[in-house]
Structures are given as C-alpha cells and as structure tokens.
Amino acid sequence: xxxxxxxxxxxxxxxxxxxxxxxxxxxxxxxxxxxxxxxxxxxxxxxxxxxxxxxxxxxxxxxxxxxxxxxxxxxxxxxxxxxxxxxxxxxxxxxxxxxxxxxxxxxxxxxxxxxxxxxxxxxxxxxxxxxxxxxxxxxxxxxxxxxxxxxxxxxxxxxxxxxxxxxxxxxxxxxxxxxxxxxxxxxxxxxxxxxxxxxxxxxxxxxxxxxxxxxxxxxxxxxxxxxxxxxxxxxxxxxxxxxxxxxxxxxxxxxxxxxxxxxxxxxxxxxxxxxxxxxxxxxxxxxxxxxxxxxxxxxxxxxxxxxxxxxxx
Length: 313
Known about the structure:
Layout: H1 9-13, H2 29-46, E1 66-74, H3 76-101, H4 103-106, E2 109-111, E3 114-116, H5 121-124, H6 128-140, H7 142-158, H8 167-193, H9 200-226, H10 236-267, H11 271-291, H12 294-298, E4 304-311
Antiparallel strand pairs: 1-4, 2-3
Organism: Globodera rostochiensis
InterPro entries: CWH43_N, PGAP2
Keywords: Membrane, Transmembrane, Transmembrane helix
C-alpha cells in the first residue's frame, strides 16, 4: 500500500491499490484522476453499492477547491443531559413542591363528582408556583427535542440497513416518525400552556392527543431503529428492547387512563379519579424514560459538529 499524505486526491483513492505495488506516477494530474476513476469503476463492479451508500451530510476537503473549518464540536452526551434531565427534574420538582407547600389544594378536594383523594398531575402543574417550574423545565427542552427529531429523521434515511426487506415501508415509517414526533411536541406545549382550571375541555383534548401521537411516535421510532444501523452494538439492542418494553406498557396504560376518566366523568365513580391520577403519573414517566433511550442511540455513534465550508478562490 502506498503511503500518501492525507487530504490529497491520492489519499482519497490510495486504499484501492491492493496489489502490493505502489500506484503509477503521472506527470499530468489529469492522468492520475483518470486512472483513479477507472479503479473506482472496477471496484464498483466487484462491490456494488460500496460508494455513495451513506452520503455525507458535510462537505469534506477531499478536493482542493473546498476549505472546511470546524467551528464547534459538541459532546452528544452533554446535549442529552441538557435536553432530558430538566423535564425529569421539572416533573419531580413540581410534585414534591405541591405535596410540601400546597397539599390542601391538591389532596382530598371536591371536584366534578365528589371528593378526589389523589392529585392528578394536571392539577399540580396548574398551581401558580408549580406551573412556572413545570413550564420552565419542559419548554426549555423543546428546541433540543426538535434537533433530536430532525437528526433522527435524516440519519434513519442514511443508515437504513442493507438487510431491510421493505425499504418503501421503512421510508414511510421514517416520515411518520417526523410528523408524529412534531405533533407530540406541539400538543405537549399546548397542554403545558393551557391549564386545567382555565379551559378544562381543551386541556383534556390536548392531553389525549399528546398521548395518541406519542404512541405513534414510539412505534415508528422502534420500527426504524430495528431496520437501521442504530440496531448494531454497542447499545443498539439494549435501546431497541427498552423501547419495545416501554411502548407496550404505555399502550396498556392509555386505555386504563382514558377509561378511568370517562367512568369518573360520566358515571361519577369516585375511585376512578384516583386510578386516573396514578395512570397519569405512570404515562408521564414512561414518556420521559422512552426519550431517555436517546442516551444509548447517540453514545459513541453521533458527533455534533458545526463547520464552515468555503470555496477556495
């Protein structure tokens, strides 16, 4: 194998010369490019699909006319903790604050059909102090969730497994992943901003719409994960099986949540509100746990880099 300086056109194709002899020397660079193209074409015939299978989303300085300068390189784990720890702390902090400071307002109070013993999370985040705490932490992570969905959409497109037997269905699932994830975020914002006390009917609609789109997003994410290179180790299978388990529990809990609310609201069965409150807690933490699987998806697999690309004159 010939030793060639990195960053040159020769380095770009040096791995193609596998005969043990150094590549021929050319006085005219155009002759070298022609020979390199011929070798690439021959390699393409023997190994179809090797080139362009995963096109780069960043321009590289593989040709002399491009100047690439890396401005920022961010550790993906830092972004994960910035984006997913605040919502978890916001949920825990709101519940603890309400239990310690406003217990009389959330426990054992009269509501639509009699006395409700357990407080629902919707009532907790509607209290003035808890509402501010919840909104600051949950709305803070929304921009990073947008980045997560956008990066996942493009990387699922580039990293589809060669063993995927239904590429068209995979592409459809990838687009559903984008739209369902976006709608999940929209309704999360809506139910966080629109309180239970001000507009209870709208709050309930936003809550169940959020749950429905979350289920769809979870399923599409797991399907795309199983048919992409994200499934590979390290952590690929752990992340996939964790997503499946959390999705199953979430799907089971949603009918319980909806049925308990309807039985309390329509039939005035008081204990059903307590069942609804417990199911609501479970759903919120299942949602947070599912999105925390991104820790396994990006660790050792994703690099966030901001680059400046200029055309050299």
